[in-house]
Automatic annotation (TrEMBL), chains A, B:
GO terms for cellular component: cytosol. It comes from the Bacteria. InterPro entries: SUF_FeS_clus_asmbl_reg, Tscrpt_reg_Rrf2, WH-like_DNA-bd_sf, WH_DNA-bd_sf. PROSITE patterns: HTH_RRF2_2. This is Transcriptional regulator, BadM/Rrf2 family. Pfam families: Rrf2. GO terms for molecular function: DNA-binding transcription factor activity.
Amino acid sequence: MIRLSKLADYGIVIMTHMARGRARQHATHDIAEATQVPAAMASKILKTLVRTGLLASNRGANGGYVMTRDPAMITVAEVVEALEGPIALTSCTEEGETDCGIEQLCPTRTNWQRINDAIRTALAEISIGEMATAIPSAFMVEDDNSDHQVSRPPMAKLA
Amino acid sequence: MIRLSKLADYGIVIMTHMARGRARQHATHDIAEATQVPAAMASKILKTLVRTGLLASNRGANGGYVMTRDPAMITVAEVVEALEGPIALTSCTEEGETDCGIEQLCPTRTNWQRINDAIRTALAEISIGEMATAIPSAFMVEDDNSDHQVSRPPMAKLA
DNA sequence: TTCAAATTGGACCGAATTGGTTCTATTTGT
DNA sequence: ACAAATAGAACCAATTCGGTCCAATTTGAA
């Protein structure tokens, strides 16, 4: 059912939390507590987020993690890709998989590209900054079209 | 890495093939052969596509499967949902999961909705009909912005 | 200088999901 | 009556995933 791995899921939650927090620097422990993400898990995620450059770390006592960029400049797509690798919906678009055997009927290939692009774009259009803006009170900050938080679409289960 | 299950992957390939084929009715065997999808697998997929109403079946000798709708009227999203259930990126949006524990910091919830919507929309904007139109010769049919098949974006592996 | 608080990196494991097969029943044309 | 199809379900191996744990390193402070 096309779902994000928990890793990416948590990742976004964590980044969102860090973006919202007034404190610049956050220690793993605090983040875990605040987000309810299991500490070990949070740690793992934070580490890889550092590796991919979305976070910076200060080691040693009083250490912690800091965002390297303005949350508004970090897209959800980036976080997802940082944690689960490139967003590619189908195996046929994966690197090195040139020999899918069905080359002839594979105009589809290019269309798959379209699908991938579409999704990536969708994910790239939402920033962590936006995610961090509190919604219940409904203050959309730097957002233009304001229908999304109202519509809770049926989400069509099957047909 | 956010990927479609092989089920949905194959599903789209199969639907695309059926849309392209001049023959109205297709038998499992032929479909499997043409698409390179393992026969048993194809069979399984076809069955569920019938159950969800995207295909109709004729049983018995000379039987086979038929699309119930104009391919242009069937979206990729439908096929995906038919095969892997509702498109919901994160567990927190799944039905009945109201007790995510972190209700307070969960303005995020509504933002997840946005993400889900974005993706679903992306997938809903591409029809099987479009998928079926041959691309290599680059005849974009009912499409407006024509940069997607040209741009093979870096697909940013990690950072 | 020594200790404690942090991050780092990796190995590791159980469980769930996935991709795929197989078998039996049923339907239908010839 | 037989063969060609679909229907439906159970079943299995293997990968992936969510999660934990541990040893190493860095750094501030007593």
